[in-house]
Amino acid sequence: MRAVIFDLDGTLADTSSLAVGMRTPRGLLERERSDPTAWRFDRSVCDLPGLLIARGYRVGIATRAPLPYASTLLHMNGLDACELRCNTDRIDSNKVSAIKELLGGWHIPPSEAIYVGNEKRDEDVARVAGVRFVSAQAAKDGSLLANLPNLATGLRAAEVSAVRSGFSEIEQRLVDSLASGVEDPEKHHRLLDQLRAQGTDGNPALPYEILTLRVHPGIEDRRSLQVSILDSLSIAMRACVMTNGPGIFGMAPEIVTKAERRSDVELHRAYLTSLKRLFPIQVSGDGFGEKVPVRVNYHVPYRSRFGKDVLRVAKDYGTHGPSQSRYRSGPNVRLGKLDAIADIMASGLVPGGPEALVPVPASAPTQERPAGFSNRLVSRVGQLAKRQVLDVLERGGREFMAEPLALVGERVYIVDDQITTGRAIRACIAGLRKEGYEVVGVLAYSVSDQLIEDADKGLVEDPAECSLRGLPEILGIPCPCEELAPQLRG
After folding, report:
1. Mind listing the pLDDT tens digit for each residue in 128-145?
2. Exposed (0-12), middle (13-18) or buried (19+): which is 404, by Cβ within 10 Å?
3. Does 257 share its domain with 123?
4. Which of 22, 126, 252, 383 lies at 20 to 30 Å from 102 by C-alpha?
5. Do 273 and 287 share a structural domain?
6. Is 251 within 8 Å of 318 (Cβ atoms)?
7. For residue 282, is it left (φ>0), alpha (ψ between -120 and 50) or beta?
8. Distance separating alpha carbons of residues 132 and 149, to the nearest angstrom
């Protein structure tokens, strides 16, 4: 077996008590406010997809549930998945198609795949799709994990050696290829020159290491490769390690899973440090006229796939509610994208620092805006950065009023997800200063390029622009960027 595809409701999420017609983010969020663990099975079930990915299996989720609902459940339960497929019309034949699409994308035949479900109709779906059916009970009692050992990678000894030996062996293989005669020597010479130009960098073999782990996540030396990759990542490698699917955003689980990070503090720390390099904090010192440093992880050039597009989809931007504002979030949030945004923001803060975090006030959750996205995001950032979150601002028309200081000279960061015009930030600064708070900075995931003209140019937006394009073919390993590019650009 090489692939495991899960049903969601009743298999990975305990949603049996959810009323008919409430398979929406709102239905999940209303119950969660009184019971944060309402939809979770045992932690071992939440960890299972990530543990299987770390053993080398391709793991997907195929569900009849709507995408916003499924994405939000992934966030609430901390679930890993290589891909998520949803069918909103609840027709079983379309679920069969989803399974076939996943396997086709992974180039895995149905005979080498398992579908895990909790209903008789799931068993029927598996039979029609030609895959083996396993009951959800096997996921809950541990027998599924026990019966799926680490996959043999099938890597040739020379390829494994190249991963560990690094630059010198890759360089030698290019030289040998040129000596033996190749159809496109110009490409080989270009790659050789680029690799040699990187020779003084910390890890010139990094592209090859990433490719190896993306294609063979269950490689025996996985942890060593993870550490090497996370310690060496830079902004230029963002497209190689980040995924941005319809309901998911984050570092590819083939590189590191949420389950692994939950169980390994050092690996989680290395992951956050790598995000700081992938999405480096950029500081604007004038604070939109307020002389307060504004720290952002991304300048948004409106067509960016890792900037505003992530927030637009995650928050369901559109014309919702009485104001019909296109910057107003809506009911179909996809919170599966929130965790990575919070991780990126927290990576730029020193854990346990003295400055508290003050969220920009958001409207109370409503039927049209159920998520309270900004407050949820700031809470997550506070947990990760071990910082106190002070909800001390209230909106009063165009102004913000702060609660009186509990501690004289309290130093705070104002935190928001996206700065669009800067008006709300200026009002928050004024309200906090009036009550004696010392605003030491503003922290946001992204800022409009209408405010900061120097938009981020470090991201390789298309594999065709990659300086190492062609290296995977020479080394005999497919480049995952080629397969992911259409999905990421979409």
Report:
1. 999 999 999 999 999 999
2. exposed
3. no
4. 22
5. no
6. no
7. beta
8. 17
Q: How confident is the model at residue 473 (pLDDT cuts 50, 70, 90)?
A: low
CATH of the domain at 60: 3.40.50.1000
Residues whose CB is less than 8 angstroms from the CB of residue 348 and which lie 6 or more positions away in sequence, other chains included: 276, 281, 295, 297, 443
Condensed to tens digits (0 to 9), the pLDDT of residues 310-321 reads 877 888 876 444
442 and 311 within one domain: yes
183 and 331 part of one domain: no
d(CA 377, CA 448): 19
User: Strand 249-251 vs strand 242-244: parallel, antiparallel, or unpaired?
Assistant: antiparallel
Note whether 270 and 288 are same-domain residues.
no
Residue 152 lies in a domain: no
Residue 346 to residue 338: CA distance in whole angstroms: 12
pTM value is 0.83
Residue 92 scores a pLDDT above 90: no
pLDDT at 346: 92
In terms of residues, how long is the chain?
490
Amino acid 190 reads R
Instruction: Enumerate residues 6+ apart whose C-beta is below 8 A from 344.
Output: 275, 278, 279, 297, 445
What residues make up the domain containing 111? 3-146
Q: Which two tokens stand for residue 381?
A: 């950032």
